[in-house]
Amino acid sequence: MTRILLSGCNGKMGRVIADLVAHRHDCQIVAGVDLRTDSSGSFPVYSSIHEVEEQGDVVIDFSHPSVLTPLLSYGLQKKIPLVLCTTGYSKDQVEELTKASQQTAIFYSRNMSLGINLMIELSKKAALVFGDSFDVEIVEKHHNQKIDAPSGTALMIADGIASIMDETPQYVYDRHSYRKPRGKHEIGIHSVRGGTIVGEHDVIFAGRDEVFTLSHCAQSKEVFATGSVNAAVYLVGKAPGLYTMSDMLADA
Question: What is the rounded CA–CA span in Å between residue 189 and residue 151?
């Protein structure tokens, strides 16, 4: 039985994860961490990860980038693996978690959906086939309460495509100030915020007289919750290192 410490337990994703785990038999949440410490009674809730008294096997974090440093400190101190699902980390924070992964197992993904990760692999394949004869544009849509833009997933897709390009592309987020034709070595990234959209991503490959589009639509937050819990169960017992969804899928 995998014992989970859930950071951000009273947020939207935290509540979805708690409900999901309650119906599984291979894991349980033994404690939660949140600024709001109200508890449903199924597990205690603390305001800080360092206040947690229960023994956990792994931490799942769906909270805020500001808590990364104390989470990493806790993971290194307790020698406990971390599943980091929060988006909006800065470049310095990504370097910080990468360095910490040398001492404990860390699973880091800006999107925990199986479909999104397959979309990235298909996008990389398309970019290889089309080369620089097709322009690449990414459009992401989320609910009106999402703070970061572009989404971590959009950047994850762009990074995947960029990794197979001969020349490092420029990410262009806002074209209204660009008074010139589109360059060949660009990836356009566009954000839409409205209503209750859970998450939609389109990768557009626009060539001469034809357009190829890959689309993914998340219809509920449960797809991300399932991925994070599966990652937590997978990570327990792993050697120090930085793990991704690709690693988990390869071992499936």
Answer: 9
